[in-house]
């Protein structure tokens, strides 16, 4: 199907090198607009025409899951057409399936992308924290539903894109930017602003005049949302959205009491499905979801039509229960489900979890007042498709004890003001049919003032913001995350009975449920009162850790949470099992007395792949040759990333650096030369006399004899008793480090080969990549003396990665040093150093580390 004109415009801007800020209505094909240029470039354009990797970031994991399923299916069709695979992956906290961001097209939650861009990734250990920045710098970056980003992430993303945008093209998009935000962001980021014109919106919504235009009539109610109002307006598909989980549960119970039947989500036949969803990944997960949806559809069909079904959907469900409910709702209310017909009479009571990510269409939407952008996002789940007509009924929220509206969780002064203006805007449009242009008028009325204030605050505080960005990127300071990504205003609750006294059992091994901190504070008094009524020893407790948190032997003691202020003392809390209730129908309910049969399930932990799980005996030259094969492409490899993808991905940032001025400019070919030099020199420290002596002794200890060549890796199999014993026997001979020594011994060589007099930043970047290819914070080295044959070995390695003329550079090796000064050669932190140097470092070290590890997998 041909692209819409606005989609063509977006593609044209991006492929010409311009970044874009896009405003388009829900259901108008924003995702296709975002990915059309990438798909075309991936299959049809030269490597340096556009990035060969796309990171698609969304604010909620359900949206990432939806796009992942859709585009993984499309990728199979692309492969049949183009005879080339498009590797589609997902990376969220719930589905951490691509922690190193190696897929061609990666759908990720914002927290995952932004933490990676800042060098403090949630998905990787501290020792691998420098791995993912290079992926961001070399990718096409898409940020969807930008208005839903937390304020901290909004500001950090905008500031980063001012800099990162010199390399990485990006697209920011949403349906609900205010005009103030739209114009200001475009100017700030020097990006093209694309707004879909009204006549094109009409054409899209009517499918070029073939269908009537969808219509949503907005009504404002006088009374709070209740079951009577929902039932009075119900046809066959009703969606009721409450701002808080507690109010959603209360409304659900009202509907149950009014005669609605609970959706059969607790049917015993679903137990193995839920178990599979907790463990499965990829296709196995898809099959389990499909089976679960089929079972639920059959149960709904068996129930007759005398009374409507009702289903509850919010954030306090265990992951498998929530995922299956979302999948069922999509199957019933998406275009395919509606076209098939036979959908049951269903009322869904939900919270903000349905605002984005669910391609569904209700006939009637009931929503409590919230920021206008959120209300309109919710409205996007009503009369979503061409020709449909729907009602959106907006309700006031209950009053607090002081008589003011209880807008929670929108509780800040700015959010309360936006909610007040939103309520006024909808009241002024009572019973109006709002098209896209009219919705933008509501957004402008409700949000412009707050958006302007946020942008002003960002400008005034950008000095402090950049200091935090520097702390994260340069120093690896993970404590900057709350200020740059998301302030942790939620608490994880586990239903668990911790031991009294010292315990080695970690509370983090359980799958908890996240609650807004204010919710837990508000419930604490009632929980403690119920504790007394039941004669329990405690109600809510929090852990205190003892020892180094990186130490596996860490222990915990637990303290009682007695006052609301105690909720600020921890991010995780245990609630007594008798003071909580959980089932697949309602989710977690605190303060509901129970027999205590439910406890939080153990979390499914997926271990990160270590840099090396085992080694084959390998000469230095052979190891370098294996890395080069991974980089350039090995037709015999079964590993997707070892087929030349890394070299193809390097072409785009190399071109961008070549187009820059000043310290950012690098001639074509020089960045790739730095990468190849990194391959050849990263293990020079292992060519020391001490390291080679260790290697010979170890090989003899396992009965294989001393190698006739200088060794990069000894033969080691994890779990092999002979190898484990030999490691212990000769450990005293093994030097403790080699990366810093590698960089220092190669410093002059790098300086000469990379034209360091002219391109001092690239020289420092390459030096840092070698020094930090195992540890991002390394800044020192031990005394060393290279083996007499090190020079000829390095000369051979240089010829392997380049050509025979590269051999001459081996003369610049520094064969020994009693006091190597690594810090002297590292890039300086901005503002003394240039960000271009650090970006070059991150690109080089990513390729170096990935090729190093993948070469071992190949072996």
Automatic annotation (TrEMBL):
InterPro entries: Cas3-like_dom, CRISPR-assoc_Cas3_HD, CRISPR-assoc_Cas3_HD_sf, DEAD/DEAH_box_helicase_dom, DEAD_box_RNA_helicase, Helicase_ATP-bd, P-loop_NTPase
Pfam entry (one): Cas3-like_C_2
SMART domains with a match to the protein in the record: DEXDc (SM00487)
HD Cas3-type domain span: 613-854
Record keywords: Antiviral defense, ATP-binding, Helicase, Hydrolase, Metal-binding, Nucleotide-binding
Domain Helicase ATP-binding, first and last residues per copy: 11-195
GO biological process, one term: defense response to virus
GO annotations of cellular component type: cytosol
Regions that span the bilayer: none
Record-level Gene Ontology MF annotations: ATP binding; hydrolase activity; metal ion binding; nucleic acid binding; RNA helicase activity
Metal-binding is among the record's keywords: yes
Protein family membership: In the N-terminal section; belongs to the CRISPR-associated nuclease Cas3-HD family.
The protein, known as: CRISPR-associated helicase Cas3
Biological source species: Roseiflexus castenholzii (strain DSM 13941 / HLO8)
């Amino acid at each position: 199907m041909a692209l819409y004109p606005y989609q063509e415009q977006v593609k044209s801007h991006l492929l010409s090198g311009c970044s874009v800020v896009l405003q388009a209505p829900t259901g108008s094909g924003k995702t296709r607009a975002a990915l059309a240029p990438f798909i075309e470039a991936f299959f049809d354009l030269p490597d340096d025409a556009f990035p060969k990797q796309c990171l698609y970031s969304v604010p909620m994991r359900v949206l990432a899951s939806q796009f992942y399923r859709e585009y993984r299916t499309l990728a199979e069709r692309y492969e049949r057409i183009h005879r080339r695979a498009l590797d589609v992956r997902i990376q969220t906290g719930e589905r951490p399936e691509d922690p190193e961001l190696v897929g061609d097209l990666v759908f990720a939650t914002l927290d995952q992308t932004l933490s990676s861009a800042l060098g403090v990734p949630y998905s990787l250990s501290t020792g691998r924290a420098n791995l993912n920045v290079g992926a961001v710098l070399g990718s096409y970056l898409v940020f969807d539903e930008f208005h839903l980003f937390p304020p901290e992430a909004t500001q950090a993303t905008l500031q980063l894109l001012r800099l990162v945008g010199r390399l990485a093209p990006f697209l920011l998009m949403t349906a609900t930017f205010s005009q103030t935000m739209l114009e200001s962001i475009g100017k700030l980021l020097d990006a093209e602003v694309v707004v879909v014109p009204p006549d094109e919106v009409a054409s899209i919504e009517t499918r070029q005049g073939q269908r009537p235009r969808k219509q949503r009539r907005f009504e404002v109610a006088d009374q709070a949302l209740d079951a009577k109002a929902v039932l009075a307006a119900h046809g066959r598909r009703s969606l009721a959205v409450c701002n808080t989980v507690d109010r959603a549960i209360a409304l659900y119970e009202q509907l149950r009491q009014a005669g609605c039947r609970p959706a059969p989500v607790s049917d015993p036949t679903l137990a193995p499905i839920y178990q599979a969803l907790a463990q499965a990944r990829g296709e196995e997960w898809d099959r389990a979801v499909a089976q679960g949806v089929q079972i639920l559809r059959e149960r709904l069909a068996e129930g007759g039509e005398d009374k409507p079904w009702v289903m509850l959907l919010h954030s306090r469900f265990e992951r498998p229960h929530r995922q299956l409910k979302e999948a069922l709702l999509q199957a019933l209310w998406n275009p395919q489900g509606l076209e098939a017909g036979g959908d049951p009479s269903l009322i869904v009571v939900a919270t903000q979890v349905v605002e984005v990510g669910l391609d569904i269409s209700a006939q009637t939407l009931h929503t409590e007042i919230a920021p206008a952008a959120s209300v309109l996002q919710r409205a996007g789940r009503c009369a979503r498709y061409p020709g449909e007509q729907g009602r959106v009924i907006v309700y006031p929220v209950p009053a607090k004890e002081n008589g003011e509206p209880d807008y929670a969780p929108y509780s800040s002064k700015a959010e309360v003001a936006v909610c007040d203006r939103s309520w006024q805007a909808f009241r002024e449009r009572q019973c109006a049919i709002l098209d896209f242009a009219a919705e933008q008028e509501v957004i402008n009325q409700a949000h412009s003032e707050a958006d302007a204030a946020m942008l002003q605050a960002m400008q005034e505080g950008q000095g402090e913001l950049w200091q935090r960005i520097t702390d994260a990127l340069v120093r690896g300071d993970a404590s900057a995350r709350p200020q740059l990504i998301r302030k942790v205003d939620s608490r994880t609750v586990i239903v668990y009975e911790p031991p009294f006294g010292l315990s080695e059992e970690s509370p983090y091994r359980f799958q908890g449920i996240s609650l807004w901190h204010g919710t837990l504070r508000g419930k604490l008094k009632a929980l403690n009162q119920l504790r007394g009524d039941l004669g329990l020893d405690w109600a809510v407790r929090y852990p205190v850790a003892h020892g180094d948190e990186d130490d596996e032997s860490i222990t915990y003691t637990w303290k009682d949470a007695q006052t609301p202020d105690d909720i600020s003392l921890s991010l995780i809390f245990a609630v007594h099992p008798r003071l909580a209730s959980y089932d697949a129908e309602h989710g977690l309910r605190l303060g509901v007395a129970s027999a205590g049969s439910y406890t939080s399930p153990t979390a499914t932990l997926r271990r990160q792949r270590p840099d090396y799980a085992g080694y084959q005996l390998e000469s230095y030259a052979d190891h370098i040759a294996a890395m080069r094969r991974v980089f350039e492409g090995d037709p015999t490899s079964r590993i997707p990333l070892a087929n030349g993808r890394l070299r193809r991905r390097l072409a785009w940032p190399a071109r961008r650096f070549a187009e820059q001025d000043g310290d950012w400019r690098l001639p074509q070919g020089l960045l790739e030369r730095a990468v190849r030099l990194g391959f050849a020199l990263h293990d020079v420290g292992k060519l020391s006399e001490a390291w080679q002596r260790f290697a010979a002794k170890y090989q003899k200890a396992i009965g294989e004899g001393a190698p006739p060549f200088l060794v990069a890796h000894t033969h080691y199999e994890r779990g092999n008793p002979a190898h484990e014993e030999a490691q212990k026997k000769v450990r005293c001979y093994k030097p403790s480090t080699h990366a810093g020594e590698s960089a220092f011994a190669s410093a002059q060589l790098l300086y000469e080969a990379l034209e360091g007099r002219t391109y001092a930043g690239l020289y420092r970047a390459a030096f840092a990549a070698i020094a930090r290819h195992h540890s991002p914070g390394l800044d020192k080295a031990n005394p060393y003396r290279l083996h007499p044959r090190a020079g000829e070995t390095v000369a051979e390695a240089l010829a392997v990665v380049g050509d025979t003329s590269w051999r001459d550079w081996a003369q610049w090796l520094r064969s020994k040093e009693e006091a190597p000064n690594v810090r002297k050669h590292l890039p300086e932190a901005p503002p003394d150093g240039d960000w271009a140097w650090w970006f070059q470092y991150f690109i080089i070290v990513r390729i170096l580390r990935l090729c190093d590890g993948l070469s071992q997998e190949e072996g």
